[in-house]
Protein 1
Amino acid sequence: MSQIVYDARKIKAYDGLVRLCDYAGKDKAWCNELWMLFLTDAELYEEFVYYLEHHGFADHMRIEGYSLTDCYVWQMEKYNLTRDLGKNPVDCNKEELALQAFMTMARLKQNPEQYQQKFMRGFGLDR
């Protein structure tokens, strides 16, 4: 009798992503787009698994010198500026910002010049 080994890590990671997307108000199409980016980029996928397990960024992955934390801060800056609420209000959905940071990192890897220009405009409200 042969043994079947069932590895559920990707199923658990997908479930974690779906739950985060639901909590963050992201639709299924956006969630699936991010999942496909994870499946095609092992390094980004590992960063996401770390996030699910530790609720923080490992920051092992760097693109053009930028980490996921940099992408998160940039997303937070955009959030604060567009809502004109000051710095990091209580009602800010941090999970949405984290998911946006993963999407930004994937897009940074695909088009570094475009995102470098966006990042060079500054991080933080006090610039």
Protein 2
Amino acid sequence: MKRVIVLFFMLFFVGCVSATIPHYLQDKSPYKKKFYASYDDTLKAVQTTLPDLGWKITSLSDPVVYEQNSAGNEAVPKQILMFTDVRQTAFFLGTRYAKMNIYVRSLSDGTEVEIRYITVTSTPFKTLKNYKNDNAVQRIFDRIEKALK
């Protein structure tokens, strides 16, 4: 009888919750910052900053593949979309997964960097999504600015 009760509690409290992290992140609460540097210098700074902060870049793409109107009415001469690997952090009763998409766009007087961030916290009872992380994004922007100097 004790085994049945223990087995019941184990099945009840240990759940299988799978967290689905999309490859492409929609623009829910994106962070944007303009840098007064060339596109090539800014792209190089982003590509060195992300791995330094523990973010592995998994692939690069043209943003037009994912967003038909990403260029707007004006033609953007240079732009790229970077996808990071999913970072996993284990907790006592759950796991948090984080991922970013980074857009680098050339402007007439500099370069714009847009970061889209998502965290999915998976617990046995619920899965929570959050599209903001002000501290992490500010740390990335500061490191990019420092790399450009």
Protein 3
Amino acid sequence: MKNIWRTGVIFAAINFLALAIHWLFQFIVSPQLGGAQGEYGLIQFTIAFITFLGIPLQIASQAITHYIARFHFSGDDARLHGLLAGCRKFLFYVTIAGSIIAIVLIKPLGDYFKILRTSLTFVALVVSIGGLWASYFTMLCQGLGWFKRLALIGLLSAVLRVLFGGITTKIWPLAEWAVAASAFMLLANLVLLAWKKEFPKKTEKIISPWTPEFIQFLIVSAAWAIGSNCFGQGDLLVAKKFFSNEEMDAYSSAGLFARALPTAVGPLLIILFTHRSSQHHHGDALAEQLKLVGLYAAGLLVGAACLYEFRGFALHQLRRDTPDAAAMVGHLAGTMVFVGLVQAIGTWALASRWIKISILYGALGIGYWLALLFLGKSTGQLLHVMFVAAGIAFAVLFAVWLVAMRLHKIGAPEES
């Protein structure tokens, strides 16, 4: 994993191409939904809703990825294969549990956030369960450093989404079919079967992951996953609860591009997490990681400036270039810069095993979402609270991160 920032640039470039194809999906689907108020907003909200339902497996996958990377790059193959065997069993049960949780919670949560169509609730459940079962492939690729294959899956997923969503919404212009495209695109994970021979070999010696250290990291991963989802998607849940269909369409249109800022440079954090998880924390490795973070931050800032400059063009491609949507882009872009920077620090802390900072990140994420829920009951209020709350969260977390760096905590696990 030498020159990880170069690997990060290549990986991010390929994923940006995939993101552009996902935008093409939006540009095709949005006009095909016609003028029906609320349909487009329903798509964005439902996808965010599905992401929250997948939090249990996100927690497990992040913890397991950390340990796979740790033993893979240490060259401890026997330990790696035994651990993988134990983790497969663990992931299987977590996936079943996550599926049951999704089935139980989707109706009451759907009612709370005003998903009033049973058909859309059912589609959300199918996509949620499919995503749970597909995430094992992502975890395997990331932990073993198979970034090119992960990028290939991302590209193929985007193409499948465009094909399925473009055809189905042309025939049936409903949010259900656009959301169902997110389930169809999961079939791209099957491409990994072409490298089946390179999968870690099965072993008779199964090593249980349930050590005190792993349990502690699993708890910290829970804080990280909850914080990341609250920062990245929490505003859509709040908007759906309080906004009218017309307001939701405008907000979702503006938010689509603003939310793409951390998504576009997010692959850099995937590589950062894997590299720091492999216990490369000092010297040249640290310098490479800081370059990666610098590149990530620069990407956020440049992306926000470009988005603001071309907001009219971008919204026109969605056929949703209303004055309300255009006015929201600047506020949302600024917020997402703060959110992206907060997520970078949170990822650094988790990979470094900085327990207290990771828990602080999760607490800040929950506080951010609660502030939106109680204070963001109109578009103007929500936009203002988001920007201020994200800025405060970044200031607090950045200050704590700087103190940790100055105290030479790099590479040393914190005591709980």
